[in-house]
Amino acid sequence: MEAPPYIHPTAIVDEGALIGEGTKIWHFSHVYGKAVIGKHCVFGQNTMVMNHVRIGDHCKIQNNVSLYEGVVLEDYVFCGPSMVFTNVKTPRCLYPRNTSADYTETRVKRGASIGANATIVCGITLHECCFVAAGAVVTKDVPPFAMVAGVPAKIIGYMCERGETLSFDAAGRALTTYGQPYHISHDGIVTKVDE
């Protein structure tokens, strides 16, 4: 039998929130009642998970991260300290957008990593195992295994699922130090090759 979730005494978890086995929620965090969190996740100090946010298994959310309604994290996602998600494209105090219909989905796919202080503008997808550098401002979809940096973020290279930089030959093939091949297509899409 797996361990139940651990909720620090200073954290607030509203009634109705679903939290998977082995997940840890640390100091001064707040999980809203309609949030769904998977197994074996770790939430650092001062994190917030709002209603209707869905989080997969084995995610790591570092200190000072807010997950607003519309954010979906798949399994094994890393969110660095103080990175920012948005959920409304044109916020106005005079004309509030405060219903589920007003929020735009942002999806972070399996194995993606987001560096400290990065900003993810809503309505985009960060694809499998992509890597967002610290301080980047991401305004469009990031392809699988791509590394992006800058303001606005641009592709600066590619990375394997374990975090090694990929160097492609003329045939579009790269091989990691542990023997895993990858391929890049003519349109810049990287795939892991099953041999």
Question: Could you walk me through the main structural features you see in this protein, from its secondary elements to its overall organization?
Answer:
It is a single chain. With 195 residues, the chain is mainly beta. The protein has no helices and 25 strands. The protein has strands at 6-7, 12-13, 18-19, 24-25, 30-31, 36-37, 42-43, 48-49, 54-55, 60-61, 66-67, 71-73, 78-79, 84-85, 106-108, 113-114, 119-120, 125-126, 131-132, 137-138, 146-149, 154-158, 173-175, 181-184, 190-192. A nine-stranded mixed sheet has the order 1-4-7-10-13-16-19-21-22, with no helix packed on it. It has a six-stranded parallel sheet with strand order 3-6-9-12-15-18, with no helix packed on it. Strands 2-5-8-11 form a four-stranded parallel sheet, with no helix packed on it. A hairpin with a 4-residue loop joins strand 21 (146-149) and strand 22 (154-158). The model has no long low-confidence stretch (mean pLDDT 96).
Q: Report the β-strand fraction as a percent range.
A: 25-35%
**Shape assignment:** globular
Taking pLDDT < 50 over at least 5 consecutive residues as the criterion, the unreliable ranges are none
Radius of gyration: 18 Å
How are strands sequenced across the largest beta sheet? 1-4-7-10-13-16-19-21-22
Structural class: mainly beta
Please work out how many helical segments DSSP would assign.
0
- Percentage of residues assigned to helices: under 10%
- N-to-C series of helices and strands: EEEEEEEEEEEEEEEEEEEEEEEEE
Give the strand tally.
25
If you average the pLDDT, what whole number results? Answer: 96
First-to-last CA distance: 36 Å
Q: Major β-sheet, in short?
A: 9 strands, mixed
